[in-house]
């Protein structure tokens, strides 16, 4: 499924937050969204996911979701959003319980499948409090996979994790994408994540966020390494584009 955004704008109480955002996101593409704090990245993601409506422009989902998809779009958040009183399997089950057409046996099969795909097969009965941050985010990814979405909407999914765990989860996401070729919009502050995971990186300006540049990366996602000089050069370029605006946005948030 593709996403088509044209002329999208949004204001809150008269304050323009996003302006004239036009983007085509192809099926199977990971588009990273980067930009200074408060430029509207999460707002854009929420609008793509239908949690909020744009004031201007339109957001279209083009094409059919995968067969058996229960939700065409699904979110993965920074804070994992797990229910502490449910086991790992119980948390994944939650995404399926409102779908009455799925029998208990089918649900159990889907849960077992997504837990094995996220390397959680041995942790089905564990409780969230027993898990590390990285494992908790894997549960959130498993829960998202359970509904067979066409598009993942990820809002800084790795930013609550330490550097090593982030690297491991990035590798997991790359492995998962290589198998499943999902479409994703991935919001991040971390430029290293953007150059590892994004087919394209859209850089937003300060509020009201507009698209300043879109940078495409040709190296296949599965072939990217940490020390790849081309990726490091793109990371530098991104930082060059963002630095002044990030500093200005930071001052604005701190001083008024
Ligand atoms: N529901 C809302 N009501 C009023 N203002 C809002 C609402 N949601 C977001 N905003 C404002 O809109 C602007 C953009 O917020 P948003 O969270 O989308 O930015 P962001 O780029 O994701 O920021 P960050 O990088 O800091 O997470 C901010 O000034 C924020 O305060």
UniProtKB/TrEMBL annotation:
Keywords: ATP-binding, Nucleotide-binding, Transport. It comes from the Bacteria. PROSITE patterns: ABC_TRANSPORTER_1, ABC_TRANSPORTER_2. Transmembrane segments: none annotated. The keyword Cell inner membrane does not apply. This is ABC transporter ATP-binding protein. The lineage of its organism: Bacteria, Pseudomonadati, Pseudomonadota, Alphaproteobacteria, Hyphomicrobiales. InterPro entries: AAA+_ATPase, ABC_transporter-like_ATP-bd, ABC_transporter-like_CS, ABC_transporter_ATP-bind, P-loop_NTPase. Coiled coil: none annotated. Residues 3-231 form the ABC transporter domain. GO terms for molecular function: ATP binding; ATP hydrolysis activity. SMART domains: AAA (SM00382). Belongs to the ABC transporter superfamily. The keyword Transport applies. It comes from Oricola cellulosilytica. SUPFAM superfamilies: P-loop containing nucleoside triphosphate hydrolases.
């Amino acid at each position: 499924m593709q996403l088509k955004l044209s002329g999208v704008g949004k204001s809150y109480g008269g304050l323009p937050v996003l302006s004239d955002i036009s983007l085509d996101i192809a099926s199977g593409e990971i588009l990273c969204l980067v930009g200074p704090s408060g430029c509207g990245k999460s707002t854009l993601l929420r609008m793509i996911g239908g949690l909020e409506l744009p004031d201007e422009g339109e957001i279209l989902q083009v094409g059919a979701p995968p067969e058996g998809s229960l939700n065409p779009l699904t979110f993965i958040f920074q804070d994992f959003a797990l229910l502490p009183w449910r086991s790992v399997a119980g948390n994944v089950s939650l995404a399926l319980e409102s779908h009455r057409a799925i029998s208990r046996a089918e649900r159990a099969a889907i849960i077992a499948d997504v837990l094995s795909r996220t390397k959680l097969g041995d942790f089905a009965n564990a409780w969230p409090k027993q898990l590390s941050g990285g494992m908790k985010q894997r549960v959130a990814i498993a829960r998202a996979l359970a509904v067979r979405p066409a598009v993942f909407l990820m809002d800084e999914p790795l930013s609550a994790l330490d550097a090593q765990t982030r690297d491991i989860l990035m590798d997991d996401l790359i492995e998962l994408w290589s198998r499943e070729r999902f479409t994703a919009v991935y919001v991040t502050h971390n430029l290293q994540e953007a150059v590892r995971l994004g087919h394209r990186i859209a850089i937003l300006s300060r509020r009201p966020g507009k698209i300043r540049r879109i940078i495409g990366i040709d190296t296949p996602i599965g072939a990217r390494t940490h020390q790849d000089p081309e990726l490091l050069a793109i990371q530098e370029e991104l930082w060059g584009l963002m630095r002044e605006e990030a500093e200005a946005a930071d001052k604005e948030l701190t001083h008024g």
